[in-house]
Task: structure prediction
Amino acid sequence: MTTANRSARRRSQTDLTPETFSHLLAWLDRDRDRAGQRYEQIRLRLIKIFVCRGCTQAEELADETINRVAGKIQQIAESYIGDPALYFWGVADKIHLEYTRRAASHFTALPTDLAERKEPPQDEAELGYRCLERCMERLSNQNRELILSYYGAVDSPQSKISGRKELSQRLGIGANALWIRAHRIREGLKKCVGLCLERRQTGHGEEME
Result:
């Protein structure tokens, strides 16, 4: 099965119609198989982004981002200039803002100007993603595999449960211990990215302690 076909089967379980998904792939690359590979890369990176930002529904938010972009394909495909991935990152920022607003509303009132805040420029967003990639590279192979498997691509809540159970068995630890380990890795990534951004924005270079 080609990458494009695997991607199409996964998307068939979401809100996207086959026609809309085909338009999305065509926008990513004229070659359908390369487009499928590009789609998988973008989805995985979206998951990494939401994981690093502390979102507990990283996979769902990644799919929501893709659905949001796909819904605008006919309006943007002809006029958009540049790497399509950058458009996904901008939409992901908006999705994350909506997510934090929903989460915060359960505990306290939101600042009145929150909805009026502008999205960060694409170059700032890209800087954050580069820091995330850099921090992921600093993880041990085992921890990188664990965090990506724990929050990785799944097709349904049941698949997520089964996948984490299988990961727990493979590592020889219980479900709670697995959650704790994944949580610690995620928190470490958040701190690493924060330090990376601080150093770059203050002009102290890329090195991180």
Observations:
- The two ends are 43 Å apart (CA to CA).
